[in-house]
Structures are given as C-alpha cells and as structure tokens.
Amino acid sequence: MFSVSYNKAMRYKVLILVFIFLFVGPEASRGLTERDILIQQIEILKREVAVLKGLILNYHLQGEISSPSYLAINIKDGSLLLEKNSYHSYPIASITKLMTAIIVLENIELEEEIILTEEMLRPYGHSPALYLGVSVKANKLLRATLIQSTNDAAEALSHFMEKEKFIELMNEKAKSIDMNDTFFYDSHGLSLINKSTPQDIAKLLSYIYHQHPSLLEITKDNNFWLPGPTGRLLKFQNINNFYYLPNFIGGKTGYLPQAKQTLASVFKINEKAVALVILYSDNRQADAFKIIRRIGN
Predict the structure, then answer these.
(1) pLDDT tens across 228-274, in order?
(2) Rg (the chain; Cα; Å)
C-alpha cells in the first residue's frame, strides 16, 4: 500500500539533517563564510521541513477530489484504475517539460555546451544560476528543467536546436505516440495553448517509463546545484514535493493561474507502477493522495 506516516516523516527529517551536513557542506558552500554556510543550511532545512508538513497535511485531507479531469492507469498493461473526464482538454502548464526532456534526449548531445543568450533568458521564472553569457552543458539545463521547472532552461534547450524546429519535433513526437488531442506551442508550458488530456499525458508517461526511465530518476533529485555569477553554488529546489516518498517513481507538476495545478507522475502502488494524471486541480497533492487511496484499497 501507499502511506505517509508521522514516524516516517520524522525519519526523513533526520535524513535531511544528515544530508545537509554531509553533502551540502563543502561543495555547495564554496566561497562562503561559516555564517553564510550556516544560514544556507538553515534555509534548506526550513524548506525540507515545510515540504514534509505539506505532505502530511495533504495526505490527511478529506473530501471530494477537486480536479474535474484525472486518470490513473497501470502503466505496464494500460488497464484503467480510476478516471473522470479523462478525454477533456486543459492547459497543462509545466507538464509540457516532460516532452521537452524527451526531445532533448533524442536530439541533443548532452555534453554540448550552450551559451545563454537574451532570448533564452526571456521567459518568466528563472534561476540566478542561469545568466547572460554563461556556458552550461545541455545535461545540466535538462536537470534544471525537470527538477526546479526552470523556464529559461527549457527555452535555452529549444533555442539551441532552433525553437521552431524544436516545437515541431515536440508535436511530431506527440502524434507518434498517439497523443492526438495534444498541442505544444512552447517548451516550458507558460502558454495556455499548450493543451492535452489525461489520456494523452498517460501515454507520455508510459513512453518515458519504458523508453527513457532516466528522466524519471532526474525528477526525484533534490541535490542539484550550479554556480551563480559570483561563483557561489545555488540549489535547484525540486518543486514536485512527492520526491520524498519511496513510492514515487518520478514525474512532473505544473501551475498557471488559468490552468490551476497539474500533475503527471508515476507511483508504485500495491507493487504496480501507476501513471497518475491530474489537470485543473485546486490541490493536486491532496487529489493525488485521495486517488491513490481509492485505487490502493
């Protein structure tokens, strides 16, 4: 079964402390004073505790599922576990970046150095570690795209190939895996024109699960850093807060005011890999737990 317990949460808190002082220490604090290092570590710890509190709170929330359109399937045989209006189309926000990642893996050499330009840095939502003129490897931009959902990292990858060609490849790939009710306008998901259905997004998750499982591994990472303009290493915070849970295999979240909260992730439930897609949700985390409980009982 799938659960979040207070005992497990406390164990995770201890692991956070160990992680911070063993792994964040010398590498991430390069060029900082001892006081700066301590402040940095405290801020990271505060964030991790907030993530755990949010998981526990949402796990225990009762009531109806807020999403009007969702789907859960057994990813290995495609059997339906639970759905509601799963053929309805909605803006998908940053779930878009899952397709972006596929196009990168299949078309760009990951060791390629990409020099960031003004066009690449134009989208809203960026990291201070990605700035004008810096050279960043494609594989690091891919990690920034999937872990922190950094929009300019996704834009940089699309511009490197030529943006129009990149978007064309996204839509061609969608058609090739029978995502016939999906359209991509950009590589990051800020446009409301990026639309899909839970049925189509489940096909996308299935393709990734079988063809590119390394992408799912990246989405569980919460220890990715890049140097900023001063040389100080800056953390890319994983915004899919399910990364803590051992049942989480990987996936992506998204948010826009007009699209509300979206989720496309794979969980291990009763020893089965389950693709879970939630669109237009008021609280995707609570909705996910409610769906998981229903299909897990």
Answers:
(1) 998 888 889 898 989 888 999 999 999 999 999 999 999 999 999 99
(2) 19
pTM of the entire predicted model: 0.86
Q: Is 125 exposed, middle or buried (0-12, 13-18, 19+ CB in 10 A)?
A: middle
Q: Nearest-CA neighbor of 63 among 296, 282, 297?
A: 282
Counting every residue written for the chain, the total comes to 297
Q: What per-residue string of b and e applies to 50-68 under the rule 16 or more CB within 10 Å gives b?
A: ebbeebeebbeeeeebbbe
> What is the per-residue DSSP string for 136-181?
EEHHHHHHHHHHS--HHHHHHHHHHH-HHHHHHHHHHHHHHTT-TT
70 phi, psi to nearest 5 deg: -150, 170
> Quick one: how far is CA 281 from the chain centroid?
16
Element (H, E) at 83: strand 80-84
HEC string of 6-56 equals HHHHHHHHHHHHHHHHHHHHHHHCCCCCHHHHHHHHHHHHHHHHHHHHHHH
CA nearest to 28, candidates 218, 160, 222 = 222
Taking only the tens place, the pLDDT of each residue in 60-85 is 888 899 999 999 999 999 999 999 99
